[in-house]
Amino acid sequence: MPTTTATPVTPVTDATFHDEVLAADLPVLVEFTADWCGPCRQIAPVLAELATAEAGRLKVVALDVDFNPATAAAHRVLSAPTLTLFRSGEPVLTLVGARPLRRLRQELAAELPWIAPS
Fold this sequence. Notes:
The protein is α/β, with parallel strands linked by helices. It has helices spanning about 15-20, 40-55, 70-75, 100-110; strands spanning about 10, 30-35, 60-65, 80-85, 90-95.
């Protein structure tokens, strides 16, 4: 029986988005993603590393836009990957496209000053 390793990036759906993102106690970085998206696959290890490094201070989740169109439409997601940072249930920063960890940390630091660029 193969062992599975829990990913530090939590999958969310239209049904779980409110509880996992909007009602979260921590800031939440949402990746709006799709299976067919090459840049989404490229940024996946970056998000996993960020989620691991910032565990307990930042929650990182992924929502597949093809299977969860209501949430994607509600947040006007037009491109994948789109990264949206939510704090207290409100979107405070939106970034479009893949990027290296250092750049992502720099961009997040404007809203989350405790995140230092690596």
